[in-house]
Amino acid sequence: MPLWLQAGLWGLLSGSALIIGAIVGYFSRIPQRLIAGIMAFGSGVLISALSFDLMDEAYKAGGFDSTSIGFIGGALIYTIANILVSKQGAKHRKRSGEQQKSESEQEGSGTAIAIGALLDGIPESIVIGVSIIKGGAVSMVAVIAIFLSNVPEGLSSASGMKKAGRSVQYVFLLWTGIAIISGIAALSGYVIFAGFNADVIAATTAVAAGAILAMLSDTMIPEAFENAHNFAGLITVVGFLCAFILTKLA
Q1: What is the model's pTM?
Q2: CB neighbours of 107 closer than 8 A, spacing ≥ 6?
Q3: pLDDT tens for each residue of 157-190
């Protein structure tokens, strides 16, 4: 199977976790504290993956300069884009409570939430495609970590969308679309960057890592802390440890 196709399928697989989470979040009555706990676990998984897999690989390939510039650049790009979509009604897109704006409360918020969800998912997917370039095989740690973190993202967000009065068609068309775009983004990450040198690949990986960390701080961690309270830190540590173990077993 061609590597570009492998990249796309791995991206689609990791993105499909959003649909799984959305199904559970929309049709089940899960206590918000449990949702917050799952979100904390997913946050820990991603923090570990970007620390020991993404940033470490970026440093080995491009050194401090490419990694540092990419990492800060990714966080800056994400932050600016997130501010823009937040002003249009997507600020609480990952929240499971009643924080999300309905279309009647803020016109255009549905579109903003869709763009925000896309903004959150693309960096992760590009990483999957780029990870294949170096060794000809996908980073299973990255795929598993992104899959595990996407489940609580879809779960929490879909729960909040339901409370905001969004239809089941909107919710599942959104997450199905994001899953498909995740596959396309992973495929594109491989195709676009396969011909570049190590410094560019390192910077690209670091950009994705910076964007992911900024996303965690802005969207996932606030949801985890607000409802899980004193247990949020402990659950995050457990998620971090699980992903760390994966990096050592891979």
Answers
A1: 0.84
A2: none
A3: 888 888 888 889 988 898 899 999 999 999 999 9
